[in-house]
Amino acid sequence: MTIENFISNPLNEIEKLIGNLSVNDINSFKEPNISEIFKNKFSNINDIKKIPLLNKSTFNSINSGTLVRYQCMIQDNGIDSELYSLFHLVKDKKTNEKKVKFFKYQDQINENDYEYLESEKVQTFRDRQLVYCINIPGHNSWAKEKSTVQSLDNKNYKIINEKFPIESEDNFGAIVKIYDLEDANDLKLNAVFEFIGILEYSEHNPTIEQSYDDLDMNLLSSYPLPHVHAIYWNKIENNSNPIINNIKNQLVNDQDIKNMRNEIVEYISNRFGGDELIAEYLLYNLVSRIYSRIDSLPVGKFSLNICNIKSTEQATEIYKLIQNIVSKSHYLTLEHKKLNNKRLAPSMNCIESIEQGIGLVSGELQLSDGTVLVVDETTMQEGKIDNTGVVNISILSDLFQNQKITYDFNYHTLDFPADINLIVLSEAKSKLFPCDCIIPLQNSANINQDTSVNEDLLNKIRGFIDIMKVSDYKIDQEMANNISKEFVEKRAEQSKGKQDYSKKILGQDDLLYQLNLARLYTLSHGQTQLTDEFWTNTKEFEEKREKRLNDYLRYKSKNNINSTQQPLR
Amino acid sequence: MGIGPYPQLDRLLKSGGLNSDANNQNPTSELSSEIVTSKRYIWGTTLVVAEASKMFEDFLLNFTMADRIRAMREEDSTVSIEIRPEHEQPYYFPRILKEMNELKIYNLNLNCQNLKSYKKSLPLYHQLIRYPQEIIPIMDHVLTEKLAENSDDYTPVHALVRPYNIGKSVNMRDLNPSDIDQLVTIKGLLIRVTPVIPDLQTAFFCCSNCDYSMTVDIDRGKIAEPTKCPNDACRASNSMRLIHNRCIYSDKQIWRLQETPDEVPDGQTPHSVSLCCYEDLVDTAKPGDRLEITGVFRAIPVRVNPRQHTIKQLFKTYVDIVHVKHSSNKRISIDENLIGENEAIVQHDEEDNLKFINEEEEKNLINLSQSPDIYERLASSLAPSIFGMEDVKKGVLLQLFGGVNRFTGENGSPRIRGDINVLIVGDPGVSKSQLLQYVHKIAPRGIYTSGKGSSAVGLTASVTRDPETRQLVLESGALVLSDGGVCCIDEFDKMSDSTRSILHEVMEQQTVSIAKAGIITTLNARTSILACANPIDSKYNEKLTIVQNINLPPTLMSRFDLLYLILDKPNEFDDRKLAQHIVNLYINRDANNFGNDIIPVEIFSKYISYARNHIQPVINDEAAEKLVKNYSELRQSNSISNRHGEQKTVAATTRQLESMIRLSEAHARMRFSNTVEVGDVDEAYRLIRTAMQSSAIDPVTGRIDMDLINTGFSSRRRSQNAHIQKQLLEVINSVDKPSIRLSELHRIFNSDSSEPISDIEFTRMLDNLADDGEILFDKRSQLIRKLIR
Question: Per the count of CB atoms within 10 A, which of A497, B442, B539, B581 is most buried?
Fold first, then answer.
């Protein structure tokens, strides 16, 4: 029963914890650890599930003052912190009693019941951090937690379109107020969290008075946006995939893992008309992530360029397949009109207004870590790219090279590290974006969608990918020695005999790439330790891919010669 | 009429307080220069008004610069500033006060460090920090009186004291409730300025019935609107009207200050804070300026609604500015010598420079510079993820320190550049770009650009029309923006010739001249250039000479002080190390496998800034001699051309001599030494020679002897060589044959020794042994013979 009370009227419960205070108690007031009490209350996962989930569809049916769960990405953490007084004197209109009210986790009082009084004596300054959060961009519908509550009455609140990277029906943003400032540094930009807090909004927010004396440049907090007073929060790992635990239990013995992997490759390759090689490399891309960063060098990035794509339709088919198996993905088109008009990277707006956005204005590349970004080059048409377009392209290609995005803050820029799985779909080999790995689609390939949707299998794939993505990985010393030995020998061999200057000899980058590929190969087999077998297999696959790429390039150049000769005849 | 940020208190002090007000029971202050009979405290504080004003008066009259220097010495015994007689003169009185009267400038910039170091005013310093709203008006009052006393023509003025340099600055992220109503200093970037806002100071009311008029002063941000006509004859209620054009207003402006990028923690967006400035300070800064603001952190409550007095529990915070300092010339630590040509420094800035960096940091840096292997440590800390290339890193390191800029003094003569330019030509895939990226990150004012995507105007400056004002404006390009820093240019060879040609001027004269659309001007571009290029066929061609391979016009090439060739030549020893290095990235996740000697980036850049600003090495006599000798040597060895008159190696010109001087200076700077010694010159000479691989060039053909290339050669090993050489001799002597093949010996040696040695080093050691007469080494047959004794 108490759990329900905590959910429906948490402020009441907090008031009970604080007790009745008189003006004289203020100085000796010791605050109970409210977030700890709440955490303990909701230590059971089933109890947590009882807390209503806050999103666009549920917002209308949740009352202000209810405890909510808000799963979101931090879109802007540059909002000014806010100063408030922990206590304030109020008058209870019914009883005409003066009362010291505790103002943590609460901004407004019900003006029918209470009235503000002069309360300089009880002023106790505290500050709190404000962050603006939005629904996770690119969160695919299958990965979202289902909520049953639906209602149709509309509440008056504002959606500031400029603050969302991707246009979507589900876009919903709220200001989260953070009270535990020691932990606030973890709240990094673009990180994904689940906040447990008290929802507050007011339908008739005072209209913003633009007076000359407007010190309150903190415009965001004065708009009629929903607020969540965070009591505590958890970082959402594992790509916010809800089915991960089920799958984990199925992956116990090696045979299971092997079977599952075969099923996955079969599933993907069937979509590509039985092309197993593509399926392999696509899987590598999906399980890759930035493993560590040394200086500015991201170790573990694996951007994939699938070329020889005939049409945009084919490209969208591929995206649909990817969308169906990863929890977060985004399909980026490159029409020059769009590139010229809108910045892909977020930027700060100095002149704040509701038309141009407030604070950090989002761009399509503001995605949380682990999102799969599919860039469709086939959507490019002939046209002129202007200043903004050039900046956009260079930011995108910087993302491919260094996995970082440069945000513009007007008088300076800041680089934010990203961890986005990148796939380019292009007709010819992509010239704009330097990819780690290029693989052409087979000429005959038809992309066919899954006709008989097998949810069970799909869930397996989804879980498998997200589990392996974050698994640890080891190379033992012996293996390491062998690899270095092999590298040295290969180089020595290449330098011997006739020196061909046009041919590049094996270098640092090649070794990095091979090691990364071996890692992804191992992980995609559900294993965490590199073995000799895996190492050789990786090389075999790589040879196959290179052969296909070379064949393709040769074929392509032959065709080109033919086509240029034709007009001569 | 002087109105500071605290008009109500100002007036309270000037008018003699509110004693007549019966409702006000607070003991208020009455300030006059007469004897104060009883102690009067400012309400809510422990301040005694009379004491505070006395202290400040004493400070104004008697403080000397010598006090400041003494206080600094007490704090830190290493400070060695002499007290000269002029330091014993009182600092403010009468000189500055007289100046103020003469110039009719009634703002005094008060350096709080002076206040702090004057023993008798130390309590006042602390009071100022804690109760600025009370103390500053008292100071203003004292100053006004002093000015009046010392002025011949008495015109009532209201002087303002503007305290600054309070000793610590807070990050705006850390401003918290405990700072409310205290004096704080924050640094940041001004991003937005509102138009000037007229701020009502005195309201003028007029009765609509009887035309009786009255004025009401602002009190704590509010005007008490009279509800009744005070005219006894009228007494009409609600008849008073505000007459706008007879009210008195003051200027007010709201600024928005944003965190500077270096202070933003990882993964956070910059925060900003609102500032209010008044009167004189309005429009003293424009968006984009870097400022250091001293002011009072204030919080004002939010009202329930604008028409009510009741307040909510929410507050708006802002800073009332009392002092603005432009910190732009300090931010990136440009060589301070550079300032002075056409930039003005504010005079009172100079005294701040007595102390610039926090002392502890300074001591750490000096300690660091004393460590014997500092050169190696710094070099290996530069882009630690890049393996090998030690000499390249050393060259780039010295580039970051730079030589000394010289102004020859006579009018019109150009300055001699101290900036070092480096060109790296190398095979693809030797992580040139990565090195550039790193330098760009660490260098003061580093700019990164790629030759492929740069146009001439992009590098220099372009003239565009401002869309709003329709005026022509200059937009600075990469080279101008990196004035005083390092400009990294990737893909130098892909640059078009016309673009490249503008670099001629930049690299020697260090200016950019523009003549476009009626704008004819010369901009400074005192920048070091770090460029990267591929050889002509994208891979080094052994069959061509070195000049043919690089394929840059000699005019441009000679402007580079160091020209590195990095060839990707397989070499078992280095390859193995490289492979291990890379595999390790995958074994240790946190990959801190660069060793503990690595100096963290922050300290690294501080070290560089410190050296650039504080060390101006001078060449001593022996070093000068050595320079001359080395130069003539270099010139001889390079004066080879074939019979067609075609140059085969890179020619040495007087530019090389200058380079050597710069590099020696940079090397001395790097070890915090104020003199350039022979050792510095030796290293500079070595760098210049290794940088062209000139020791490896076959003088006849002009080609590089590929077997002698050693890009990964570690100089730390060089010091161990004597020991290894001895081991090698033992191995040779233990062989029971009279002679042994080189390859065989190498194998035996490497299998015995704990650390394998590369081919080149091995051959070099054998050479050394042969030179010492310990063995016979026949290079042709690759045979090593023992000496029979």
Answer: B539
